[in-house]
């Protein structure tokens, strides 16, 4: 099995950010009232005063105002699936697993279309509340082991060194910068 981070790895730039902008354009009445508080929480996050989980919950606090979230997500992917990296599409395999901090409800349709597995942040698509932890850093390894206790990952791909716990788990790991895929720094391949 090969495992992949999603945002800025096989999708550029970031699916949560891109979805937020999509909703801002298509549902301004839902998103704009939450924007001032989201901006304040983003500043607090940058200062290290707020967790990524709480920031993400605030950013997605507009979800209850979206009339049909499932339809909105499908329309979002119709417009944005072209952002999937060609290098990934060329090597995609049926047993690939996407493991991402982005919400599962957001990535589920594109992963289904690609025919690959998914582990992401468990967020209620109707409330924006996260169940458990943000699927990032060591949490990715915990969730991987929870879902696949005996599995190993042959190759892991990510844009960020914060994914070192997953890279350490893989036989081989690669750092991705847009379409530039290189061996993971310091990892014996």
Structural description of this entry:
The protein has 189 residues and is α/β, with parallel strands linked by helices. It contains 9 helices and 6 strands. Helix 3 packs antiparallel against helix 4 and helix 5 packs across helix 7. The chain is globular. The mean pLDDT is 96.
Task: Map the helices and strands.
Elements: E1 2-4, H1 15-26, H2 28-31, H3 35-46, H4 52-59, H5 69-80, H6 86-91, E2 97-103, H7 104-114, E3 117-121, H8 138-147, E4 155-158, H9 164-169, E5 172-177, E6 180-183
Parallel strand pairs: 1-2, 1-4, 2-3, 4-5
Antiparallel strand pairs: 5-6
Helix pairs in contact: 3-4, 5-7
Features:
189 residues, alpha/beta, 43% helix
Query: What is the overall silhouette?
Result: globular
Number of strands: 6
Strand order of the largest sheet: 3-2-1-4-5-6
| SSE pattern, N- to C-terminal | EHHHHHHEHEHEHEE
Percent helix: 40-55%
State the helix count. 9
Mean pLDDT across residues: 96
**Could you say which structural class the secondary elements and strand pairing correspond to?**
alpha/beta
Q: End-to-end distance, in Å?
A: 16 Å
Largest sheet: 6 strands, mixed
Radius of gyration: 17 Å
Brief summary:
The chain has 189 residues and is of the alpha/beta class. It has helices spanning 15-26, 28-31, 35-46, 52-59, 69-80, 86-91, 104-114, 138-147, 164-169, and strands spanning 2-4, 97-103, 117-121, 155-158, 172-177, 180-183.
